[in-house]
Amino acid sequence: MERANGDRTAGSAMIAAAALSVLAMAHHPTSANAGPIGPIVHGTMIVLAAIMAFGFAHFALRRGLGRPAILAGLVAYAIGLGVTIGAATINGFVVPALAARAIADRDVFLLAWEANQALAGIGVFATGAAFALWGLDFLRRPGFEAKAIGALGLGAGLVPPALLALGATDMHVAGAFIAYAAFAAWSVAVGIHLARGGLASNRDLADSPPLA
Fold it and tell me: How many CB atoms lie within 10 A of CB 10?
């Protein structure tokens, strides 16, 4: 019962945080002089990212950190979380603070922009790697639902990084929205799976072999 309650809590938190992150991203400012909306949006996204990290950490623990794909995915997700928070901190707090102090040195803002873009890009690749690894783990589980979530995980994990690597998109507002919306969609799918008790079967956990 305690495990089931934990799954419902983690799953519900993931669903809510993922949906709200898309809403927050839709209000992302497009300039450093956007007023208080910049820190509000980025601060909200940092909080929501932490909530989703709670959900995925719970998922990883439930699937078993002894599985190489699960542990590797958790490490990749942690890297993605850290650099994504760094990118949000730069655009949400550092750049507005520089603008408020009337620091007009173009090189300073260019450095901040490039740092933001680099961190955000690394975040997409790291989070994509985590979702692809976890997607593969889902594919190895029995049942249509698990395999469907696994296929979606591979799509969410591979497509945004591929688009970024090929130059088909970037980490400007529009490109970032595409990547984060894809990530949010899979987060919702996993959250629903957790909330509905998809990991409640000990037999399922035992029968699914570790992915080397």
Answer: 25
